[in-house]
Amino acid sequence: MENLKVISRLLDYPTETVYEHLNDIKQLIETDPLLGQTAKNGLVEFIEHFAKQELLEWQSYYDGLFERGRAVSLLLFEHIHGESRDRGQAMIDLQQTYKEAGLEIGVKELPDYIPLFLEFLSTQGDDNARSWLQDVSHILALLAARLQKRDSVYQHLFLALLDVAQAEIDMADVQAQIKSEERDDTPKALDKVWEEEMVTFGPDQSCGTDIRPTAKQSKQNDVPIGFVDAAPKHQNAAQAQ
Asked: Fewer C-beta neighbours within 10 Å, C or N terminus of the chain?
């Protein structure tokens, strides 16, 4: 699915290459036969919004949105397992899935980083990609709702992913579940985290992935990823923040 590769690039840290080709990306989206019109309109709005800004402004906004707090973290398992031991095993399993499919990761990036995950799915055939997206549709909807609450145009990327997945999600219900959530990216909330947790340094999570699927990359064989049942996870993720 070419649209997953496009969304992956838009969701990753803004680079000069992407910024300079926003018009080309816009044309790809407008002619995509698999995207619904509402999803197309949202993606075009996203592109036009940042095309009017300087790249440094876009990068600054990205850092402020995704690098502060955990509510809109771009790490899938953050919303599924939190800091539990299960998260480590899930990382190993997903990394093994990439390896078996022949995917070579060019940087030290956590395997559940959503842009990386989307890049992988873009090589797996339409049916398999759609199935995997449906497995995590509750997380995609949760992120879309939280970004809507923050009035962020990044909501359109996640709504487009739900469109590609053809997921049956009641966004009104998701929005109702997070209505009482307090933001975790305010100075007060961040100070509280620093007080309660020791600062740890893990693998290099620098922005900007360099992903290179190899020639032997699997394109059709379904390699299941062990995501859990959507309904309870959706609720737990919302309550955890």
From this structure: C
In whole angstroms, give the CA distance from residue 233 to residue 205.
25
CA distances for 108 relative to 44, 111, 121, 174, 202, angstroms: 31, 9, 19, 33, 11
Q: How far is CA 168 from CA 126, 210, 223, in A?
A: 18, 32, 23
Compute how many other C-beta atoms are within 10 angstroms of the C-beta atom of residue 182.
Answer: 9
Query: E strands, the chain, where?
Result: 103-105, 211-213
**Per-residue model confidence as pLDDT tens for the chain (241 residues):** 789 999 999 999 999 999 999 999 999 999 999 999 999 999 999 999 999 999 999 999 999 999 887 889 999 888 876 565 667 777 778 888 888 888 776 667 788 899 999 999 998 899 999 999 999 999 999 999 999 999 999 999 999 999 999 988 999 999 999 888 877 565 555 544 445 554 444 444 433 333 334 444 344 444 444 444 434 334 443 444 4
Q: In terms of pTM, does the model score above 0.90? A: no
Q: Are 50 and 14 in contact, with CB atoms under 8 Å apart?
A: yes
Q: How far is CA 103 from CA 10, 14, 100, 124, 208, in A?
A: 20, 23, 8, 11, 17
